[in-house]
Amino acid sequence: MRARHPVRSSQFILRIPIPRFPAGRTAFAQRKLSISHSRSPLLRAPPSITLLSKRLSVNDFAQSVTDLQTWKLTLAYDGTDFRGWQVQPGEPTIQGELQAALGRITGESPLPQGSGRTDAGVHALGQVASFALQARIPPENLLRALNRTLPPSIRVLETRTVPGAFHARHSAIAKTYEYRVFREPVCPPFLARYVHACPWPMDVELLQKSARLFEGQHNFLSFAATDPDLASRGVDPAPKPDQNAKAPTAPSAVSAVRTIFSSAWEQQKTEAGDLLVYRVRGNGFLHHMVRNLVGTMLDVGRGHRKLEEIPAIIAASSRSAAGPTAPARGLFLHSVEYDDLESSQKTE
């Protein structure tokens, strides 16, 4: 069928084919069908062709497909009952719950990208996730809908739209982690999920001195996990390597050099008892790095290692040189920092 009007090169015409019956077949079909079937739209007089054809610009069509909006979410969660952030078949995960909630709310199921892949049992006070949606929904409405849909152990604190180039992990410039150590002989059951109970004698001054030794730029390979998936999962962004350089083999395929901006212990008095809180801020962290730092420092504080050993542990670039991995339950992803995003919308 020819178009009634000439079509420009940047346009095309969408047409819906109209079935036509040969002469005499319509009456025969009506006799064979019931009264209700005889009223079928296929047997009605065809409407005007102008109602079935729509002229659509190619540019408009492409825009409707690619017009996605990038979102930045800040969320907190109790990681005790989850197998970490990353989706795992048949296992409850933070990423999986968030993806499912977005699907129920919007009909879309983007896979949210987190600023870091927290392990099983690790908590977050300020995890950040990013994803793209076609649905146009006010940020405050999305926040309310997610918190009604997600389990109570996951709460969305903020929703906002951001520039399309934003990525929760790759755009991060700094992160802060907290590790909490409970110092009393008996740990209350309502705290047991969120602290490492360590009632043994501890030299807090040695803890502080050991923490300061980690500040600055170092190769933290001695404090990185040695599990088989090290090269693919638990590392935060580091400066991009030379593209012309030959890629080394695992586990050194992942750069272990990180910059720690601050590293310190703080004593806190709570109603339940004394708490030691380690807070570390850096441009990135290796898998298990914070927990291995804490385990090594607690060994120093308890007198199992000497403070002077720490520089040698760093230089060894061997996991066996450092102390044990502290339990996951005491670790919190405290906050993630980004460059200024004030040009985007924000939930009030």
Unreliable spans: 1-19, 21-58, 228-251, 342-348
CATH topology call of the largest domain = Alpha-Beta Plaits
Helical percentage: 10-25%
**Any idea what the shape is?**
globular
Q: What is the SS-derived class?
A: alpha+beta
Summed up, the helix count is 9
CATH architecture of the largest domain: 2-Layer Sandwich
Give a short overview:
The protein is of the alpha+beta class and 348 residues long.
Which features characterize this protein?
alpha+beta, two-stranded antiparallel ribbon, Alpha-Beta Plaits, single chain, 12 strands, globular, 23% helix
Molecular structure report:
With 348 residues, this protein is of the alpha+beta class. It folds into two domains: 66-171, 2-Layer Sandwich (Alpha-Beta Plaits), CATH 3.30.70.580; 174-240 and 251-336, 2-Layer Sandwich (Alpha-Beta Plaits). It contains nine helices and twelve strands. The strands form two sheets. Strands 3, 4, 5, 6, 7, 8, 9, 10, 11 and 12 form a ten-stranded mixed beta sheet that branches. It has a two-stranded antiparallel ribbon with strand order 1-2. A hairpin with an 8-residue loop joins strand 4 (113-114) and strand 5 (123-133). The longest helix is centred in the first third of the chain and has 13 residues, at 94-106. The protein starts with 10 loop residues before the first strand and ends in an 11-residue tail after the last strand. The relative contact order is 0.15. Residues 1-19, 21-58, 228-251 and 342-348 have low confidence and may be disordered.
How do the helices and strands line up, and which of them pair or pack?
Layout (H helix, E strand, L loop, with lengths): L10 E5 L9 H8 L2 H4 L10 H4 E5 H9 L2 E9 L16 H13 L6 E2 L8 E11 L5 H11 L4 E9 L11 E9 L13 E2 L6 H9 L3 E4 L37 E13 L4 E9 L6 H13 L7 H8 L14 E7 L11
Parallel strand pairs: 5-12, 7-8
Antiparallel strand pairs: 1-2, 3-5, 3-6, 4-5, 7-11, 7-12, 9-10, 10-11
Helix pairs in contact: 5-6, 7-8
